[in-house]
């Protein structure tokens, strides 16, 4: 039997995650049946569950994949840039993909509220985004760009709360064209203000 290349396995995993993202966003966790996952990914249940132990593992991998992508942006450009990217999503990609991401993000929030087992598993993974945000803020403080009268932990929580609020705003379909000045204000709030001498 021929061996399957790692590139092929990675491409198949990406295909499953992309299809599952759309399925979970449209139908929610409970409504994303195996049949619907098969339709969304274009693969059989055997192919899907060869890569993921069960539906919960698939959903957790999907949420973790989104968190890792966000953590990469945070490490390079900060959490406010993640928020700016959310506002740009309809222009950068098709609106359906942006809606899928938001739908998945909201499903994560719902499951965190209602499912203690998921909450425990997710806590381990969500720390990556928090750690990336905290490290970025520490680097900015060391460079003299970040206000030093507020603890970095407090600033991290502030930015994460703003992100959650923005996600909720977008998920409700509220207009986003006036959000750039709000994000400018958020950035200004965490910056160090230099006194005129």
TrEMBL record:
Annotated keywords: DNA-binding
Residue ranges: DNA binding: 33-52
UniProt xrefs under Gene3D superfamilies: Tetracycline Repressor, domain 2
Keyword Ribosomal protein: no
PROSITE patterns on file: HTH_TETR_1, HTH_TETR_2
Domain of life where this protein originates: Bacteria
InterPro entries per UniProt: DNA-bd_HTH_TetR-type_CS, Homeodomain-like_sf, HTH-type_TetR-like_transc_reg, HTH_TetR, Tet_transcr_reg_TetR-rel_C_sf
Domain HTH tetR-type as annotated: residue spans: 10-70
GO molecular function, one term: transcription cis-regulatory region binding
The protein, known as: TetR family transcriptional regulator
Organism in which the protein naturally occurs: Lentzea atacamensis
């Amino acid at each position: 039997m021929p061996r399957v290349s790692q590139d092929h396995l990675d491409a198949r995993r990406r295909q499953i995650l992309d299809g599952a993202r759309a399925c979970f966003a449209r139908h929610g966790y409970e409504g994303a049946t195996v049949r619907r996952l098969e339709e969304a990914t274009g693969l059989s249940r055997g192919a899907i569950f060869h890569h993921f132990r069960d539906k919960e593992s698939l959903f957790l991998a999907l949420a973790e994949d989104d968190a890792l992508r966000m953590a990469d942006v945070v490490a390079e450009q900060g959490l406010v840039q993640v928020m700016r990217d959310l506002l740009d999503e309809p222009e950068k990609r098709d609106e359906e993909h942006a809606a899928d991401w938001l739908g998945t993000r909201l499903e994560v929030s719902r499951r965190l509220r209602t499912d203690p087992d998921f909450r425990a598993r997710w806590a381990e993974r969500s720390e990556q985004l928090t750690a990336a945000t905290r490290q970025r803020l520490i680097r900015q403080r060391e460079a003299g760009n970040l206000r030093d009268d507020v603890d970095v932990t407090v600033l991290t929580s502030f930015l994460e709360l703003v992100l959650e609020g923005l996600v909720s705003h977008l998920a409700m379909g509220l207009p986003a064209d006036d959000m750039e000045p709000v994000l400018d204000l958020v950035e200004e709030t965490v910056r160090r203000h230099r006194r005129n001498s």
